[in-house]
Amino acid sequence: MDKIRITGGVPLSGRVDISGAKNAALPAMAASLLTSDTISLENLPYVRDILTTRKLLTEMGVEAQVREDGTATLRAATVSHPEAPYELVKTMRASILVLGPLMGRFGRARVSLPGGCAIGARPVNLHLMGLEKMGAKCDVVHGYVEASAEAGLSGSYISMDTVTVTGTENLMMAACLAQGETVLDNAACEPEVGDLADLLRAMGANIEGDGTRTIRMQGVSRLGGCRHRIIPDRIETGTFAVAAAITHGDVEIAGCRPRDLAAVLTQLERVGAAVELGEERIHVLGPRTIISRDVTTNPFPGFPTDMQAQYMALMTQGDGTAAITETIFENRFMHALELIRMGADISIDGRTALVKGGRALTGAKVLASDLRASASLILAGLVAGGETVIDRVYHLDRGYYRIEQKLAGLGARIERVS
Predict the structure, then answer these.
(1) Which one of 142, 156, 269, 286 is most buried, by most CB atoms within 10 A?
(2) Catalytic pick from 117, 189, 226, 256?
(3) Does the active-site annotation cover 256?
(4) How confident is the model over 327-375, as pLDDT tens digits?
(5) CB of 316 within 8 A of CB of 289?
(6) pLDDT digits over 29-76, tens only?
(7) E strand spans, 58-123
(8) What span, in angstroms and rounded, lies between the C-alpha atoms of 130 and 105?
(9) Cα separation of 291 and 287, whole Å?
């Protein structure tokens, strides 16, 4: 099993290019199930979750080619097995995204309840509630969602109790081929939802309101093929921005979309970093003194939960105490225990972590518990004295493309070892 080894203490400097957004690419790949025509995708990150999705689609009968150059062609001319088995779904929660398109096109699906990162329950009840409002019958049998709509799906008004990104995406895909109009109220506004809407419109869907809390879809009889470019990964962008700040570095982040990361960039300015924005670039100059600032995670356009772990690593180097409140997932402080092993002073009270800065971190052997926790431990290792070895980096490989090589290109003393 691979590990990441880091010797800290080097300010990062130079330019890094951002990969495509994993969380936009996964629903785009699932959307290929909506048509028998070919979907061509560009700017996919060649990461484990993408390869898992390719395997899942292939097992269903989809002709799926994914290349390391970031291109993919997907053709679901025939889908012989409209099922997502436990063996694949347990490793990646986003596999639930095949439920919506399977129901939209075929009116039936069998999908294992999802797994993935151990950061909270993340139930799929809102996905099922929305499908039932559209006329589907949904049951959970032996750990599988078994859904069917013999007469096809019908448009409906769906109000979601809480904001769910994958729930919004699943119901959008299901509604594209439903009869009549579907309205999603309290929909997610994340950029990845907007990217999926752009793809679906290119396929011939009738969608309005993405980027707002109310999305309207008028069902069409058929969707076709298209070519679509995946948006840059805002979380990878934010991770490198924090890396520049925590190491007191000087980094240009290229090929990104600054508007998708306004809350994080504003927070970095609040802690003392100098942030200069271009159309597709961000220049981050780390501060001499990192100012401790509180933060609360919220759905977009708020501070993203996927940046909470990285920000916690940053606050271990602050000049005071910062309160970090997690409102999205109830079990997303597992990285704190590993940061404490490296010398951090962190206490947790419910959904709030108090991080006292001013403590020098020291290298240690640590375990990654989930994807973003892996990134936080790398950030801590970049400033820790001595050597840090991070185990279970398969979590990291689910969402970051060659992050150790990109960091090494900025001067970090980092390598992957077997």
Answers:
(1) 286
(2) 117
(3) no
(4) 987 667 889 999 999 999 999 999 999 999 988 999 999 998 888 889 9
(5) no
(6) 999 999 999 999 999 999 999 999 999 999 999 999 999 999 999 999
(7) 63-66, 72-75, 83-84, 108-112
(8) 16
(9) 9
